[in-house]
Amino acid sequence: MSEYINAKEVAKELGVYLKVVTSTKSFENYNAFYNIYGEEDEYCRRIVVLTPYKDLEEVNDEDPSVKVEPHIYEGNLWIKDYSLTTNPKTIDLEDVKVDKKLVLEFKKGLR
């Protein structure tokens, strides 16, 4: 059985940030008039992450159609996802819990 700990306390202990960020996904599109391909970023959802980056506001989303399972991606610990329409101010970070084993793995990756 996994042991879960408060993410806000983990952030304080490790000197990292617990944040709500917006995920983006790059989509290719084709412009038939100019006969060119382009790439656009679209916002997908909100993600609660533990991150060493103070100014992090957006993350690249691997697959927006899949519910976020806590994991480490691009140096950030992804904890939970919310709909893009969820107001970030309504997400209560005080109650966010994270698996202790995952926190230890995240801690190893910090410089």
Task: Tell me about this structure.
The protein has helices at 7-14, 100-109; strands at residues 4-6, 17-31, 36-51, 58-60, 71-73, 76-83, 97-99. It is an alpha+beta fold and 111 residues long. A hairpin with a 2-residue loop joins strand 5 (71-73) and strand 6. The longest helix is centred in the last third of the chain and has 10 residues, at 100-109. The model has no long low-confidence stretch (mean pLDDT 91).
Please tag this protein with its features.
single chain, 111 residues, alpha+beta, 5-stranded mixed beta sheet, two-stranded antiparallel sheet, 46% strand
- Derived structural class: alpha+beta
Helix content: 10-25%
Which series of helices and strands comes N to C? EHEEEEEEH
Ends apart, CA distance between termini? 29 Å
| Number of H/I helices | 2
Strand order of the largest sheet: 4-2-3-6-5
Tell me about the biggest sheet? Answer: 5 strands, mixed
Give the radius of gyration. 16 Å
Shape label:
elongated
What's a concise summary of this model?
The protein is built from 2 helices and 7 strands. It has helices at residues 7-14, 100-109; strands at residues 4-6, 17-31, 36-51, 58-60, 71-73, 76-83, 97-99. The radius of gyration is 16 Å and the shape is elongated.
Architecture blueprint of SSEs:
Elements: E1 4-6, H1 7-14, E2 17-31, E3 36-51, E4 58-60, E5 71-73, E6 76-83, E7 97-99, H2 100-109
Parallel strand pairs: 2-4
Antiparallel strand pairs: 1-7, 2-3, 3-6, 5-6
